[in-house]
Every structure is written in C-alpha cells, then in structure tokens.
User: Fold this.
Amino acid sequence: TDLGAVVHNTTSDTTSLMSPKLADDASYTLFQRSFWRQLLALAAPFWFRPIKRDDGSMHAIGLLGVLLVLIFATTGLLVKLNYQQGEFFSALSNKEEDRFWAAVWVYFFIIVVAVPVLALKEYVLQRLGVLWREWMTDHLLKLYFCKRRAFFRLSVGGMEDKVTDGGKSAEPQALDNPDQRIVADVEGFTSAALNFIVVFLGAGMRVFSFGAILYSISVNLAIFLIFYAFFMTGAVTLIFGKRLAALNFVKRKCEADLRFALVRVRENAESIAMYNGGERELYGSRGLLQRMIENNLQVIWAMFGFEMFQNATQYLTGLLPALLVAPQYLAGEVEFGKVKQAQDAFMMLRFSLFVIANRTDEFSSFATGLGRLDALLKAINSDGGEGDGDDGERDAKKAKDGEQEALLGGVEMQETANTTRVAGEGLVLSGMTVSVPKTRRLLIDQLSCSLKPGESLLIMGPSGAGKTSLLRVLCGLWNAEAGHSNSFGGDNFFLPQRVYMPMGSLAFCLRYPSSHQDASTNAQLAQALHTVGLSDLAEGDPNREADWAHRLSPGEQQRLSFARLVLRGRCDSVFLDEATSALDTPSEARLYKTLSSLCETFVSVGHRETLVPFHTHVLLLQGEHHHGAWELVTSHEFLNRKAAGDASSLARPATFGGSEGGA
Assistant:
C-alpha cells in the first residue's frame, strides 16, 4: 500500500493515527522488497551513471573511495584503542609501572592520529552529501519543470489514491507538497543514506574485528551476543519500526500543510484583508496546528515505549561480560585487563549488531522520505490522468512498476505535437472532443474549424462551458479525448487572465519566459511599455527589483503581459484567456489592435461583446449540459443577429447543434 494513500486517509481523521491498520499500511522496513526497490531506484542513477569529468561524477567517486579508506582506518584505530585499554588496566592490576606508561603513551598517540581522521571522515561525508543532493535536486527540478509540465499536472492531480474506510481506493488526490519533497526530502534522503552507508560498513568491520577479540576471550559470550542481537533487532523493527514510519510520514505532511497554508495567506493577504478573513484563517491554521500537535504527541508516546525497551535491554546486558568472564579471571586464567577488554569489546560489538534496533526512529524517518520521493517520481513519470494517449499509458505503467528511468536519461523538454504545423497554414482543429480530465464530463463534442493567416477566433459561452478548457488543450496542458490540432507545431504565445509575475527586476518580468538576460535592450523594453500604455514604468530603471505581483494592479499586470508579446516579436498563434478582463474598453481596444501585427492567428476567450469586432469568427459553446454542442459563426453574423434582435439565441447556445454557422 502506498503511504500517500495512508496519509490522505489519516489526515482527514486524526483519531485514525492510532489504529493498527495505519501501522500495517506504512510498514516500510528493511525486511520489505519495496524498501530496497525504492532505494535502488533513487540511488542508482547517481552512483552508477557514466563517469565524466564535467558533471562531478569523478569527484563523487573519488570522495567515496576516500570515505571507504577512512572507515577502514577508523575501525583499525578503535581496535588498537581497545587493546591499549586492556594493556594499561592489566599493567595497573599487576603494578607494572613501565608497562603502564608505555601503554598510556601509545594510547595518546593513537588519539592524536584518530582525531583528524574522524574529523576528515565527517568532512568527506558531508561534502559527498552536498554533491549528491545538488545532482539529485537539479535532476528533479528538470523533471518537475520540463517533463510534460509536471509542475502543472501535480498541481491538479497526482499518483496518490484516496483510501476510504472500506480500504478501497477512491478518486486520485493531488500529490501533497512537491516543493517540500524536492527540497527537504532530498536533503534528508541523501544525508541519511550516506550516514547509513558509513554506519553499516563501520558496524560490519567492527563486528569482525571486535567479534574476533571477544571470541578469543569468551566463546560463549560471543555466540550469545550474536543470537541475542538478531532476535532483538527483529523484535524492535517489527514492534516499533512500522509504527514510527507511519507517524513520521504524517508528521511531515502536517508540518508542510501548515507552512503551505501560511504561505497562501501571505500571497493572498489583500483579498483576505478585504474579506476580513483573519479569524477564519486563524481557525484553519489552528486546526492544522492541532493536527500536527496530536501527531507529535503520538510520536513522543511511541518513542517512550521504544526508549523503555531499549534502555531495559541495554542495562541488563551490560552485566553479561563481567559475569561470564569473571570465572576465568578468578581462576587466574586471564588478566584483569582482559575483563576490561572483553567489556569494551562486548559493548562495541553490541552497538554494531544493534545498529538497526538503536536507529529505529532514524530508519523510520528515512523510509518516510524515501516513500515520498518515490511517489513524487511516479507522479512525474505518470501521464497524470489527463488523457488516454499511448504515451500516458506507457508512463503510467512504468510508474506503477517503479521504474524511475527519467533520472537515468534526458529530460523531455517539449510536448509531443499532434500534427506538424506548416508555415502559412493557419490554425486547424479537426474532430476535437474535450472532456474534464479523470471524469466523463463532456465539454466539447467533435469541434472542427480552421483559421487562415489573418483570421481570429473569439470563444464565448456560459461559465463552465469549456472555454478555458479548450485553450488548455490547444496549449498542450490537457489531452483531447479525440481529434487533433496543429496548435502544438508552431511558435505560440499564451496570455492568461491572471498574470504570473516572477521575483526579480522589471526587465526580468518583461522578458519572461525567456531565459536570455540580453534578449532585448533597455530601449526596447521602454518601447514595449509605451506600446501597451505603461509609460510610467518605462521612465524608471528596468533593472530595479520589487514585488511586482503586489506593486502592479491587475490591469497593469495584464498590460505587462502584452508587453512580453511585443518583445517576443511575431509568432504563429496567440491564445488569450480573458487577458483584458481587468482593463477598460479603450485600453482593451488599444491592445487588440496590436495583435494582428504580432501573430498570424489569435484565439481569445472572453465574455465582453466589445471583443467581437476584433475577431473574424465567434465560437459559441454550450457545455456539458447540452452534450458539448457548439456553433461557429462569423463575427459579422454574430453582430447582425444581435442587431436584428436575435440576441436570445446567441445568449442561449442550447438552440444550436454542433455546426459551423456562417464560417
């Protein structure tokens, strides 16, 4: 069972956090193949990639080799320290002064060597962790932003399924907090994975080294400890590991939800203030806080039981070396230093064999982050349910099988075109059927139309009829149920109703989404601002930085969006989704008059009839309540009907069938 399903079921009812079902569903332990499959899928692309000089792979391999050498050296120094401790305790018991001071000086020499070795090992470990984190975060960012617009798909739906009380999965839910997974979970995964490599390798070498020492002193003690360690490790993992893994998963989600809620308040502060919604936001934030605190209390209670169990076994077994070796010492078979050496070797061996049991909470947290990153990669590689195309089915199958091939190969930078657009062809839609993704809600049924260069289309209809949905299909955000369009094959530009204003300078906002800083001069930026009626901004320094999303009004932001098109230059098609809704009629007319010189064809979504004269055709949509019917008419016919008093039929497109009126 995917932990994403558990968390959606759990966070809806905080009392279910204590149920045994939750712990069983979240059983990401070392004994499960899913744990190792996910670990290999995430780690292999970095460690088993082709070695190149310019991508940091040689540096990483070199640091790993140094780290392994330092681990061996550390183990050897610990063995030597154990031997020297036994030496000076034996010298003390036998009152051998020369032997005692010789052992002390050797002990101090080993300390002098061990201190820089241990410090260097930590430095190499952390430096290697930074390299791994940088590589993995960079690749996830490429996938997130460039693989079929994953950042958009994950904002509206993901791979995680909702689990009902009956245990059956319901509709898919949006993947929670992908930003936290890319930043925080990657950092936790890389650092913890390297720490566990060091811990396991060091523990393995200490088991052989100190096991040999303990075996040479007391065979019974060595055999007892090995069987006891395996038994207790299994018991602790099964009793506490599953529980802590589930609780840690929910803990991360609760904390991320509270942070996200506070960020949303900051981004929408003005609207919330106008609604006087401070108390409502306080109520919602307190609910998220209460959910987080309840989870923290459950984690504390689980850790209390774990600490009780661990402390009891630790102190009870501390007496065993003295009890088992004492008869040999009392019989004069071994020196007193051997008793101390056996005690230290036993504790070191116990610590090494109990490495899993002692770090149950850390392994649980690590498994939580591992599961979250695995779910993120599955969601990115999946089609997201936005269509039934062959590519989506293949990606969904690969994601289901856990194949994270995206990290191994290149990133898909562009969408797959339906048809290739020929220069001068215009915009062609053929038999296009549009439905809401993941539902059977039919919005548009078998739409066919063509716009020659110089022609334009205004899409009108009641709210929810599918106007913006059609634009999403034309821009490649959604897949059509049937039919095809050549809109993907050309050089297109999109003007949204809500303009995105990135952080940075005014020049950076104007050039967006271009990544070239020198794409245009300051004079060209000023000219573009004058063209769209933002002369006040043109007079200032375009390199000044501000929070432009709050500095500019919605109308000014829509003007700036047109300025981006002016800077971009002529393109094949422009798609406008109510891109002038915040402007007055004269300003709207001024901007639309510039479109014909900037593109071959343009398609607009709008409610204002003042937009009709700027278009050659009008597409009237009816929506799902009328089985996706539509009518395509010329703008002249639309205006003639309205002038003739036939506006009622235009306002009620239910009277039309799927047809092309005067086109």
